Amino acid sequence: ILLLIRNPKDVATSFYHFTNGMSPLPSYETWDDFFVAFMTKKMPWGCYFEYLSKWNIYADDENVMTITYEELKENPVLGVKNIAAFFGISLTEKELQSVVERSSFQSMKKNSQKTHGAFGNVLFRKGGVSDWKNLFSEDHNEKMDKAFEEHVGGTKLGKKLKYELYCKA
């Protein structure tokens, strides 16, 4: 199992734009309204911190590989190499480069109309890291950091995310 996790602040930011662009989902007039719903577990698919907590049980399982979105963005070649090795797939250099190129956010966004139809623009918005800084106030940031620490800060997955967020930033 490949478990891809992401900075909760970017998860919230991405989900805010996603829900407002997807008519069947609840939309929010303001970021503040969304943030309250996100932090009080009123999301259609539940609480991201609870999701991480549940997966943390399997973090040491040899059949589970955890990688962060941030790791893949920082070094996609190494990420693909590690994923391929985990699944026992050997890739030539040409195949590796092809996978990296075709799985890049830019490539997937470019092909999103073919692969995902009308939802392509909603699913593939920016694909960046740290877009949360464009929405979060200092208060939002403090509340998210506190919730992160309370729910997953001391866990293996929490430590992995914290390292990606704070040690590499």
UniProtKB/TrEMBL annotation:
EC number: 2.8.2.-
Sorted UniProt keywords: Transferase
Matches recorded under SUPFAM superfamilies: P-loop containing nucleoside triphosphate hydrolases
Pfam families to which the protein is assigned, alphabetical: Sulfotransfer_1
Gene Ontology molecular function: sulfotransferase activity
Domain Sulfotransferase: 1-155
Keyword Transferase: yes
Family under the similarity heading: Belongs to the sulfotransferase 1 family.
PANTHER family per the UniProt record, alphabetical: SULFOTRANSFERASE SULT
Protein name (database record): Sulfotransferase
Annotated organism of origin: Rynchops niger (Black skimmer)
